[in-house]
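STRUCTURE:
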């Protein structure tokens, strides 16, 4: 599957090249090229519009799921669709993206490739008839392999899968994803070699105050990431209010792409060459400012229209441009701090992605893998962390999760270990077990219930034979409602195989067992002697275990604000 995802990445790149060459230059070639060198004049405006019309028709009559930049749609399938992606998207998503990008759309190929790789993984999972968890792992592995094959960044692809797709960190998930990324990287090397995606001259070791400047640049770019996210969804809201079918929206958005592309041709297409020029320090001054501003406007309008394309490359271009601009300003203000404009651009590129997506670790490692510049890691860590902090303070959702959140679904942005997995059954179980004898009659037990001796409030009881071995469990209701004669022994009303849990099981395993067995309590036994009851675990015991978690959390030292809603009574009439 990883090999297939890597091959699809190369095929999509070639297809984008073919459509670009046919649309802007009129010749048949799979070579990856930029639309910026075209000589179409005003006719260039119509090329993106034609692409938008085709994408709109494909979305209307093929699958609406091809709209968007791919990663949010994959996240939604992982969270709420059982990781099932319709097989037709494996074909429609890359084709629609190739048309949108090849006709000048200001997008990257990575989002559609990630979505296509995820669709491949999901398709394999559906064919093999495996569980939803296993299908999720395959989806994430395919998506990460697609990213690794596109950018030559296998480690950051694994981190991206963890931060945006897996929502967990477990060996059974990480190992397949890591192997898929390593395989995809090997395929990429076989096709294009091991050179970095964005060639960048060597940089020097950053100094103390200079590092602080990079952190400030990251924070400013974090604010820009928030504004960019809001702008995209603001444009989407404007399109939602249009009185025409959404099928026509990509063509309308493409008008802006064409007009802007006429005045600034480098804003069209993937723009990987722009990113390389920015981080290598070859693009500065007025040209950089124009590219930064117009690329942002073109991308925001086009993406908000619901066309098909990726967000990573545009974010890298916009963030890199802003970082370089801020770097030039910092050099002029603090000339003696050793600030490198190229490092500032790289920090801006990664910080924009970190702020917009909150994939912090993936952003840092990606910038390193894409440039092979190890001395940039410290500025990247500081700048991306600052952007991550600003984004977390200013924005509830990210560019990846806002669309899902707008559908009324909560997407967790913070992951922690399951507290129930950390507590053993023997710690939380009740040791003072009230047991019943299997040979006692129903009449005797009912009489005991009616006496003061049974005033314990227990609703369930283990039943033991004469040797003290566990033979079953019974509830108070089952005893009181039993239709058997009063003289019948208690063992006569026992049903099925008794549910047990071992002392060294976790509370998470116990809770899952309670759900699977559809019971309210479990007998606790030791592994060396499973017939001897050593404790009794109820649902209330599991909930009570959370008290320690609450004590250990920050809420223990602060008042939890819980409002009690009271019914307002009408005032009584005055006498």
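SEQUENCE:
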């Amino acid at each position: 599957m990883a090999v297939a995802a890597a091959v699809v990445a190369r095929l999509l790149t070639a297809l984008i090249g073919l459509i670009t060459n046919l649309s802007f230059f009129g010749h048949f070639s799979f070579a990856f090229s930029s639309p910026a060198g075209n000589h179409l004049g005003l006719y260039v405006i119509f090329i993106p519009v034609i692409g938008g019309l085709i994408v709109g028709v494909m979305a209307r009559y093929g699958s609406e799921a091809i709209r968007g930049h791919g990663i949010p749609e994959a996240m939604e399938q992982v969270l709420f669709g059982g990781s099932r992606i319709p097989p037709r998207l494996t074909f429609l998503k890359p084709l629609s993206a190739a048309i949108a990008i090849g006709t000048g759309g200001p997008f990257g190929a990575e989002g559609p490739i990630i979505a296509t790789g995820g669709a491949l993984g999901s398709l394999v999972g559906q064919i093999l008839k495996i569980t939803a968890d296993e299908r999720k792992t395959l989806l994430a592995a395919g998506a990460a392999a697609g990213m690794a094959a596109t950018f030559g960044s296998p480690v950051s692809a694994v981190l991206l899968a963890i931060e945006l797709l897996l929502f967990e960190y477990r060996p059974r998930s990480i190992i397949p994803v890591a192997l898929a990324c390593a395989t995809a990287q090997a395929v990429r090397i076989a096709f294009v070699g091991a050179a970095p995606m964005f060639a960048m001259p060597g940089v020097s070791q950053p100094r103390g105050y200079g590092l602080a400047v990079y952190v400030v640049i990251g924070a400013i770019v974090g604010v820009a990431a928030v504004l960019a996210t809001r702008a995209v969804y603001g444009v989407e809201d404007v399109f939602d209010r249009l009185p025409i079918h959404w099928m026509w929206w990509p063509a309308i958005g493409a008008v802006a792409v064409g007009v802007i592309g006429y005045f600034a041709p480098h804003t069209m297409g993937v723009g990987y060459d722009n990113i390389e020029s920015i981080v290598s320090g070859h693009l500065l001054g007025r040209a950089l400012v124009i590219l930064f501003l117009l690329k942002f406007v073109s991308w925001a309008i086009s993406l908000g229209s619901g066309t098909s394309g990726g967000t990573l490359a545009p974010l890298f271009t916009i963030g890199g441009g802003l970082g370089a601009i801020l770097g030039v300003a910092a050099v002029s203000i603090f000339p003696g701090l050793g600030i490198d404009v190229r490092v500032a651009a790289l920090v801006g590129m990664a910080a924009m992605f970190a702020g917009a997506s909150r994939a912090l670790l993936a952003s840092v490692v990606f910038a390193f893998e894409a440039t092979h510049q190890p001395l940039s890691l410290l500025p990247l860590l500081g700048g991306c962390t600052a952007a991550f902090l600003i984004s977390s303070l200013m924005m509830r959702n990210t560019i990846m999760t806002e669309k899902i959140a707008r559908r009324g679904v909560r997407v967790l942005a913070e992951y922690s270990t399951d507290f129930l997995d950390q507590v053993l059954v023997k710690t939380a179980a009740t040791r003072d077990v009230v047991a019943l004898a299997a040979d006692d009659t129903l009449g005797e037990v009912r009489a005991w219930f009616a006496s003061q001796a049974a005033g314990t409030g227990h609703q369930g009881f283990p039943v033991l034979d004469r040797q003290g071995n566990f033979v079953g469990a019974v509830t108070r209701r089952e005893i009181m409602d039993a239709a058997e004669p009063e003289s019948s022994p208690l063992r006569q009303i026992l049903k099925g195989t008794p549910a047990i849990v071992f002392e060294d099981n976790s509370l998470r395993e116990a809770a899952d067992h309670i759900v699977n067995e559809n019971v309210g309590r479990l007998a606790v036994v030791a592994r060396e002697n499973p017939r001897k009851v050593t404790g009794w675990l109820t649902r209330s015991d599991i909930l009570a275990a959370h008290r320690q978690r609450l004590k250990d959390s920050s809420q223990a030292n602060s008042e939890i604000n819980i409002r009690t809603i009271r019914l307002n009574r009408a005032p009584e009439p005055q006498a």
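REMARK: Confidence is low (pLDDT under 50) at residues 555-575.
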